[in-house]
Amino acid sequence: MSAEPDYLHATRGLGSWLTTTDHKRIGILFLWTVSAALLLGGVFAILLRLELLTPGRTFVDPMTYNRFFTLHGVIMVWMFMIPSIPTSFGNFMLPIMLGAKDVAFPRLNLASWYVYLAGAAIVLTGMVLGGTDTGWTFYTPYSSKTPADVAPVVLGVFVLGVSTIITGINFIVTTHTLRARGMTWHRMPLFVWSIYATSVIQVLATPVLGMALVLVALDHALALGVFDPAAGGDPILYQHVFWFYSHPAVYIMVLPAFAVISETVCALSHKNPASYRAIAYSSVGIAFVGFLTWGHHMFVSGMSALDVGVFSVLSMLVAIFSAIKVFAWVGTMYRGSIAFRTPMAYVIAFLVLFGVGGMTGVAVATAALDVHWHDTYFIVAHFHFIMVGGTITAFLAGLHYWFPKMFGRLYPERWGLLAAALVFGGFLLTFIPQFLLGNAGMPRRYYEYPERYQALHVLSTGGSWLIGVGLAVTVVYLVWALRYGPPSGDNPWGSKGFEWLAPSPPPPHNFHETPVITHGPHEYFRPEA
Amino acid sequence: MWEPTLRFQFEDRAKQAHAARLGMWVFLVSEMLLFGALFALYAAYRTTYPAAFAGATRLTDLTLGTANTYVLVTSSLVVALSLAAARRALGRLAGGLLALALAMGALFLVLKGVEYSAHFREGLYPGTYYRYAGMPDRGAQVFFSLYYLMTGLHALHVLIGMIVLAWLAWLALRGRFGPDGDTPLELGAMYWHFVDIIWLFLWPMFYLIH
Amino acid sequence: MNELMRRLLMLPEQASTIAGPLDRLHYAEFLALNLIALVLGAAGLWFLVRYRRRPGRLATPRFTYPVWLEATFIGGLLAMFLLWFVLGYRQYLGFQVPPGEAVEVYVTAKQWMWKFANAEGPSAVGVMTVPAGRPVKLILTSRDVIHSFYVPDFRIKQDAVPGRYTTVWFEAREPGRHQILCAEYCGTGHSQMPGEVVVLSGRDYDAWLAGERVTGEGDLAAFGQRVAADQGCLGCHTVNGTRGLGPTWRDLYGSTVSLTDGSRVTADEAYLTESMMDPQAKVVAGYPPVMPSYLGILEAPETAALVQFIKSIASEAARAGAPSPTASPGTSGPATSGADGGDR
Amino acid sequence: MAHRVHVHVSVGGYVATWIALLALTTLTLLLSFVHLGPFSTPIALVIAAGKALLVALFFMHLVEQRAANWLALLAGVLLLGVFVALAAADPATRPTTDEPIRPPAAGSARPLS
Ligand code: HEA
Ligand code: HEA
Ligand code: CUA
Ligand SMILES: [Cu+2]
Questions:
Q1: Residue C199 φ then ψ, to 5°
Q2: Does C149 sit in the ligand 3 pocket, CB within 6 Å?
Q3: What mean pLDDT comes out for the span D54-66?
Q4: Which of A301, B45, C107, C295 has the fewest CB atoms nearer than 10 Å to its CB?
Q5: Tell me, what's the pLDDT at B209?
Q6: Radius of gyration of chain A from its Cα atoms, rounded to whole angstroms
Q7: Contact B129, B62 (CB under 8 A)
Q8: Helix (H) or strand (E) holding C104
């Protein structure tokens, strides 16, 4: 065994990190920046929940509140959620799982990080300059008439989109060209399938968002009037263009979560996935059918009734693919050997919360029911169940599961479970009341609200503090473990996922000897492999 | 002759070249969807204002537009031939052909500029700036918004393509391409062909269909 | 059963004819989803306990599910989803076209108010008067940005889009009052776009239609008070000295008002009129510039009556001539320059 | 080095493609002067698509490339088609407001007296 230093110690100094083309280091860079974005978005969440504590003014005026939720949405969606898992765990794990030494275009990979930083910087500049107040959807004609600045935030999001596309191209090409010998498509880890499907959406959908944003900026800055009714424009068409991106984008946000859950549930149950093909193909299915459902955000917009029907039924179809996965994950636990550790706790939380979030998605895809729920807190609850309950939970599962892989150290298990319980409990307390608020007719993006809704809002605000505490605890013990965690050894989970074929943490080119793959991942029934 | 290096992550050079090509295709498809948003808007607005769009199509300059189609198609051929020359290690020929294509790109932009300035004189501005008295129609306003957005974005791509061609021509003249080492030229050429393809659609959309 | 579920889910009252059937679909989906969630959750929990890791049991068997089982799951779910789609879409189509002859009301939204014009009668701001037991068809449009007409008690919602007309209908079951909310984000006043549906019995409605035309005489201040109520001024302004979304009108006339730009003006007739027609021209310190312009909405006599009404609201002290500035600079909000009054 | 044998499109192939493109362009132009009614749009677009395919296959060498590249193009084209079709379907199938709606003109609030 050579005494080659691992990727963390191969070279030293900040400069070596800022100029690295090692996919693992880029993954770590992204992990830090993305976590910072989560923190920032979370601060806005806490602030806006605080304002909603009382029916009238609590501590800010309406304009500030409107900027809060806009920035909360923009930061969470484009600076955290969309890049989160693909750029951090995806960058780190995907090449290793394929048995490759790096991604296909390492320099482009680093460029993606810098482009991300540039985009984030522009958004933050816009924020400091006052932020915008259009909501994360930038609906025209409001976005072309608002007195607030729209351009900086829109431009920043555009640049963030470029970063996303670069990463997507890189992952697609890597998956096609850098699979190790013996790694057939049907031996690829489920993580890779999901990230691959994500990349396809990123590459195909993001440019459309880019164009929508350019048009918003032109309409606001130059009053060009592409969507201005006075100049013959049609505001509904903006919504088509925006959602053509943004519905697929929700799968950009959740497919990587599926990727993490598929790996962790197998590894912690020590079992082969129930129906590998079903999980793998349904990812691809989501990537394509997911493009056909965007109109379900527009059921009461004045879109034609025919389109309503088409989009309603297609939304139902796309939900089937997610349902297949949920059943397969639960089925994977059957007759396994389940270790109830922090990642597994998050897997359970994921299954519950994503299940509820997704099922309410199907409920709102029922056209008539959506008429009552559209733009109420029911929708807010729906998407937080999926995005927080699904993706953040999966992000945390992956963070704990791969912590030893990335840093060669163990995190403190008891603290992990405690934080998981806090996050889960806080989550339910925050967002279950929001379903009821929505049922009761409380519209979203409301600064003030009728007094009858206050009790539920108070519960929700309390819950958000619990989530905050849970996440703060997580940050503290993980940072502690970076330095003081006990060494983990190469494979503390006894996992048969392919990323564990490499040492932990891996050397710069991942493997001492390039592996040859002879079987699929997670085949725990083999005595030795 | 310039031998391309095999980067450590690839097994062999064929795979490396395939990776580059695939990456370019995926990028171009992504670009296609950037235009795609405007294509969708065009389709939707045309459905809304069929008569106005048909009428406004007559206001664009069919002669110049058609001339530009021939120019761009021919420049595509020239770029393709230059790749063939480079593969036969005829660096100077390849470079010369690229320079010719570059000139054709410039010609395209000049003709486009002539068209634009003629429109400006008539008051055929986009969107809310539209001032043409001959056809005071909201549909025409929208038509010209899309006309400038799409041809403008396309012209921007022509410009970028020209920068790429200039760089490639320089490399070719210095003999950097050969039977095995033509990847940059191949990718650059693909980009130029893509720009050509977009125009093949813009031309009927804005000049012909009435 | 209906009542129990309604309360459990905290749904508002079912005040329109479509609310009942819609809620029943809601309950059906709610129960089905919960059943599935329960089964799934129970299975997961059971596996978690039954197959927890125990020493000495490391290798797990290879286990894949038979294809027929997968097919059954997928087929079953698909069938259920399609059923929901059909039921939901049928109801949705039912929301589009009113059954039979409908009372028509034109609804115009603007930042931040609703204006209602009954096809057969008068118009008003903020208050829509309709008969019970008859279908009412709304024809909506907007003067500025997109708003959304939402009455939770009726379970209806429809965006009002500038440059277009959209329609929606409802039939209120009984006389009563129901809150209108704006459900599409439309700016600073989005949560303060007050509105109310007043449902009258058929007879009262006819009387209201007839009565509107003859009233309105009497002294000017009283007329102004009526206009203030009809136009929704009183949604933001009070007459008793307390602070609303806008400043109170009590003791306003003749007082000195401080503005956001630091200057002061005396509240005379010209100022009051300008405040209605071009509210953004002089914004009172401590208040957001959210008041809509009434230019083109108020007729000249109405404006005069409003001024007269505001003049009439004064406390004893003010009548005695003591200067009392009404607009106290509160915690000041950031002033946005160039805020559009929303009027073209 | 393992030199993969490539079938390269020949110079003759390029020229033939070019001639075909010129011919199709001219055809489209001529057709535009013939009155084709509702078919003019589909015909023009089909010819444009044919030309685009020629460029992709021969100038961009898709014929000689691997399936992955075909797939990329196919996915994009398919998606764009769906996008265009569904977006245009909305205005095409909205209820038309042809019947005269009495617009509540500004200031139509009827004087109360
Ligand atoms: C990661 C993000 C994410 C994901 C994955 C989804 C997934 C889904 N979403 Fe959601 N959605 C959002 C994020 C997301 N959504 C956001 C952000 C908004 C609001 C945007 C805004 O306006 O600001 C929104 C809004 C939204 C609307 C518009 C509501 C409105 O504004 O009126 C609709 C309507 O159909 C919808 C439907 C769906 C459906 C059918 C799915 C499906 O894909 C879900 C499939 C999953 C399951 C079905 C669960 C798993 C299956 C089981 C547990 C088995 C049993 C299941 C059943 C029996 C049903 N979503
Ligand atoms: C995509 C992700 C995402 C995430 C994660 C969240 C997270 C949260 N969101 Fe948000 N939300 C959106 C996306 C998201 N949201 C969007 C798109 C909208 C719509 C905006 C619009 O209308 O335009 C919205 C709107 C929205 C509203 C509605 C506002 C309105 O309509 O008026 C509310 C109200 O309660 C809310 C609350 C919350 C809360 C309490 C959390 C909590 O879960 C937050 C928890 C996080 C923290 C408390 C931070 C603590 C973090 C740390 C301590 C560090 C962690 C670091 C490491 C792990 C290293 N969100
Ligand atoms: Cu009007 Cu919101
Ligand atoms: Cu969606």
A1: -95, 120
A2: no
A3: 89
A4: C295
A5: 75
A6: 23
A7: no
A8: strand C103-110
Determine contact, residues A207/A244, Cβ cutoff 8 Å.
no
pLDDT at A190 over 80: yes
Contact B9 A231 (CB under 8 A): no
Which is higher by pLDDT, C79 or C261?
Answer: C79
More confident residue, C301 or D3: C301
Query: What pLDDT is attached to residue D36?
Result: 74
Nearest to A348 by CA among A465, A427, A463, A283: A427
Distances in whole angstroms, Cα of residue B163 to Cα of each of B160, B166, B168, C128, C197? 5, 5, 9, 63, 64
pLDDT over 60 at A289, yes or no: yes
> What was the ipTM of the complex prediction?
0.89
Mean pLDDT, residues C200-219 taken together = 69
Q: Is residue A107 within 8 angstroms of chain B, CB to CB?
A: no
pLDDT score at A5? 84
Burial class (CB in 10 A: 0-12, 13-18, 19+), D84: middle
Kindly write down the DSSP assignment for every residue of A221-268, as one continuous string.
HT---SS-GGGT--HHHHHHHHHHHHHHHHHHHHHHHHHHHHHHHHHH
Residue D103's pLDDT is what? 42
Closest chain C residue by Cα to residue D97: C165
Residues C7-40: tens digit of each pLDDT:
999 999 999 999 999 999 999 999 999 999 999 9
DSSP A428-491: HHHHHHHHHHHHHT-BSS-SS--GGGHHHHHHHHHHHHHHHHHHHHHHHHHHHHHHHSPB--S-
Say what the pLDDT of residue C181 is. Answer: 95
Greatest CA separation for chain D: 97
Task: Give the gap in angstroms from C-alpha C169 to the nearest C-alpha of chain A.
Answer: 13
Give the per-residue pLDDT at D6. 53
How wide is the angle at C-alpha C87 spanned by C-alphas C24 and A436, nearest 5°? 40
Minimal CA–CA distance to B56: which of B136, B161, B116, B1? B136
A237 interface with D at CB cutoff 8 Å: yes
pLDDT tens track for B156-185:
999 999 999 999 999 998 888 877 778 899
Alpha-carbon distance A516 to nearest alpha carbon in chain D (angstroms): 21
Which ligand 1 atom is nearest residue A327's CA?
54
Interchain proximity A307–D95, CB inside 8 Å: no
User: pLDDT grade, residue D54 (50/70/90)?
Assistant: very high
- Pairing state between β C123-125 and C113-118: antiparallel
Q: What is the pLDDT of residue A32?
A: 96
Residue A177 to residues A180, A335, B20, B184, C257, Cα–Cα distance (Å): 9, 36, 10, 18, 73
Q: pLDDT-based confidence at C231, cuts 50/70/90?
A: confident
Round the average pLDDT of chain C to a whole number and report it: 81
| Residue C330 clears pLDDT 60, i.e. is over it | no
In the predicted model, is pLDDT for residue C280 greater than 50?
A: yes
Q: Distance of alpha carbon C216 from its chain centroid, rounded? A: 28
The alpha carbon dihedral of C8, C11, C13, C18 has a sign of negative
- By alpha-carbon position, which residue is closest to atom 6 of ligand 1? A250
**Inter-chain CB proximity D112 and C115 less than 8 Å:** no
Q: Which structure tokens are listed for A414?
A: 């008891």
- Give the SS3 label for residue C148: strand
DSSP per-residue letters across C163-195: TS-EEEEEEB-SSEEEE-EE-S--STTGGG---
DSSP-assigned letters across all residues of A98-127: HT-SS-S-HHHHHHHHHHHHHHHHHHHHHH
Ligand 4 ion: Cβ-proximal residues, 5 Å cutoff: A 247
Report the alpha-carbon distance of residue B188 to residue B191 in Å, rounded: 5
Partners of residue A204 in chain D, C-beta under 8 Å: 75-76, 79
pLDDT of A478 over the 90 cut: yes
**Nearest-by-Cβ selection for A525 from C25, C48, C61:** C61
Centre of ligand 3 to C-alpha C291, Å, is 14
